[in-house]
Predict the 3D structure of the following.
Amino acid sequence: MNLVDVHCHLNHELFKQDLDDVLSRAKKAGLKRILISGVNPPANREVLALVKKYPEMLRASLGIYPIDALGLAEGETGLPRQTVPINLAEQFTYIEQHLDQVTAIGEVGMDFHWADKEETYEKQAENFRKIIRFAIKVKKPLVIHSRKAEEECLQILAEEIKNNEIPVNQHCFSGRKSAMTRAIELGHYFSIPPNILISSNFQTLVKKAPLGQLLTETDAPWLSPSKDRKNEPAFVRETIKKIAEIKEITEKEAADQIWQNYQRVFGD
């Protein structure tokens, strides 16, 4: 089986001491590709450095996290902090300069968990539209963060992306059933983390979404299926097992289809 983790943060400080071991376990588990997601300019630089160091398995998804774009720090996250608003034009130029090393744009989107909706909606929406238009320009798939902003993100994506110009992957999608249905109808993909083992929301999403629109992620080091361990790419196997169980197919059938989905969305 060829397995894939389309969204994780291996540049997190929790991986600094054991990254080689983490990647070794991932390879042993069957991982062929791991997309590391950036969230701001310094994180994007770290992502590219890791991909250069481990080119066989790792791929880069360069992002502009909605909170970081505003210069609002969440606190100590283990990732590089962004305490001033991101200059989007400068970051777009940086991404274009390294486009041959970039597999996707993300994570990007909107967030009303960490930011007040009334105070920040207009600016977040403006930033998001600019990022979508940039992704269309450079013909790269989008990886979407939409915490507490699922409907708003879907509306903007529907307005900005016509005729499926670029693929859209909904990372860790937590919207209501109506939002799930709309995203499915829009042709979006959904990357499912290992905590599907304990999350009824992700189990419902897998039931509703066609297998041809599912992907696997970890969001490592977060969203572990086990509270006493940090998440890591090898745990994708747990997601595959659960998807196979829900869809009533074999693990190999689930893994093979998700690998095909990955190739369709992200290419190499």
Notes: The domain at 3-266 is CATH 3.20.20.140 (TIM Barrel). The first helix runs from residue 19 to 29.
